[in-house]
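Class prep. Protein, please:
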Amino acid sequence: MVNFDKNRIILLSHLNVTLYALCFWIQIGTLPYLTQKFDVDPITFGNLQTTFAVVQLMGGPLFGRFGDLFGCKYALALAFLSAFLSYFLLGVANTVFIIFLSRLPSVFMHAMQGAQMVITDLTEPSERPDKLGKLGLSYAIGMVLGPVIGGWCTTYANEQVAAFVAACGSLLSIALVVLFIPSNTKGFILKENTEKTSKKSKKLLDFDVFTSLIWKNPSARKLLFVKMLSGLPVGILHGMFSMIALNHFHLSAEANGYVLSYAGFLSIISQGLVIGRLTKRGFNEWSLINGCVAVLCVSNALMSILVTGVIGFCISLIPMVVAGAVFSTVIQAMLTKTVQSEDTGSMLGVSMAVHSLIRSVSPTIGGFLFQYYGFWSFGAIGFLCNGLLLAYLLVNNPR
């Protein structure tokens, strides 16, 4: 049995997730202001976001498979190295081409997925939703701090400085992973199943493995479909939020950072207080999913009809963020339960691929909707997608 301190590894995973989110949201909040210098319109900005998502889509499943084969330590080091290269290129960018080029190293920038792999390896299935929710809490802390720091960097220096700060944070994460994360976090689980796992393929790119995870796994297929349909309007709003703040609400970089931090604060409350209490009270997982989809349906409708200013938008975010946080955490935990322990990383990679697929199409859709129909259309598409999904769930009545 591998000798390591689970609590220390979990703590370090939370610290690295906070650092990862901090750096990611430093650069994501300043990106529209950097592109504005080069007169980038909403559609081109949407294409930039799509490029990032497509690159991550290609890398997500491979990253998960890499973690299953070689261990979470090397997977996390690869993720933070990818983040460093992406932010560094953004920092030296002096043309739109280099900004697009900076998205390419993000192919393996899946630190959150890597941390989820660690937590999944070290926890029992019954406690997994709560533990993954706590990991989301750490991400939310970085999400709160990152936009504020990014806004300060942009206000008192420039956008390139913000990108370099993010790059330095990624280097720190690499050092923490190399020094303190063990190469194998699956521990005794894999040792007890050595004979079974030794017969499995050791190829990094093995289509048979991914086929068995998806096409031969009806439970996973249903969960991935639910995640995709509900996640599409969220991806559209997320991908265009900074552009909305700039061109619709006319916020400065610093004010935009505060709004993003507010959303992160709501996520902290959701991940830290709501998810754990709901799961510990014994609510059925599908009942939680149905309830979250209903809340998202209503809140999107209200946003489309009633929201005209940034204050109203911030109020509408409350039910959307809370329901979205519970929804995504429960879905992730349920997906890891549909496969054997040695394949959890690959399943999380497939889940990340669905997330990236959403982000691949949503910025382009969002740029089109925003340019030709305006802000109200984001709430309308959210109401439509979640309304259809709620009808599907109620008719199928999954147990």
